[in-house]
Amino acid sequence: MSPISGADTGAEAAPPPLPKGVARNVQAIDGGSAWLEGLPRTLSELRDRWELDLDEPFAGGSCSWAGPVRTAAHEHAVLKVSFPHREAEGEAEALRFWDGAGAVRLLRATEDGFGLLLEACEPGDKLRDAAGEPEDLLTAGLEVLARLWGEEPEADLRLERLGAVTADWARLVRERRPRLRPDADPHLVDTAADLLESLPRTAERTVVLHGDFNPGNILAARRDPWLAIDPKPMLGDPGYDLWPLIMQLDPPLRLIDPRPTLRRRFGLAAEMLGEPAERLAAWSVARAVESAFDRFNVGDYPAGDAELEQAAVLADVAGL
């Protein structure tokens, strides 16, 4: 790594800027322009306070500066500074709770939790891009998920409750259908909205959810085969977490009839995670419909229609 700046050299070079695509995302958010203006100072302060050498940020992400750094002890780590928003509020809290069990370790955090120094996940290849049979890769992801869910959370853990979030989503789905997609299947949409309200209330256990457990957020590591990054954590029903992993590993909807593959995948997940397959599938229906209407709301109708199609297939698998 060729450092851009560091406390050991006394360099005062400006920290590397956000990638242009991420900067555009943040600029479109209320308060995003002000946050972007202050980001160089924030990075410089963290660089000096934590004695870091900064490199160019990673190209991905949606609303954070994240990139490799080297510490004063010459160890590799990752610095992440997020635009303050609801989904990022609990990241530090969840990483402390997991303490490396299934996820990267938190090394340091700012008081507000939006600035994080994280364990470097090396070599860092994504599960999404790994070679192998889809069900072997699914098994690897499920093993990580089982570790994240493995310990019962303390009562005072400061994370948002899943039911509060999905109640908001149910209201938005019902409000958006007649305005954004009035021709959508009313039974499918109403069923999904009802599930967003009822599933959290009928959960048999509560876990610390990752919240965005897609195969791009599961990276190859040295101390464990795979570790999760970038949680959007909540407390709630474990069944919520599975949908992106099931649907994004070798996407089954490319098959002529994806139902047998989906039933097999949900069956494997149920066996490994101890959750009913039908409940896991029902959560996937609810999340696919919610995501579709979120896409409609930003004008991405092709992606939204594809997720409604996905939800219809999932509903058949779930027997809804």
Automatic annotation (TrEMBL):
Entry keywords, A to Z: Kinase, Transferase
Source taxon at top rank: Bacteria
An annotated GO BP: secondary metabolic process
Chain segments annotated as coiled-coil in the UniProt record: none
Chain residue ranges for the region called Disordered: 1-21
Listed InterPro entries: Kinase-like_dom_sf, NH2Glyco/OHUrea_AB-resist_kin
A GO MF label: kinase activity
Family annotation (Pfam families): APH_6_hur
Gene3D superfamilies named in the record: 3.90.1200.10
Name this polypeptide is given: Aminoglycoside/hydroxyurea antibiotic resistance kinase
UniProt organism field: Streptomonospora litoralis
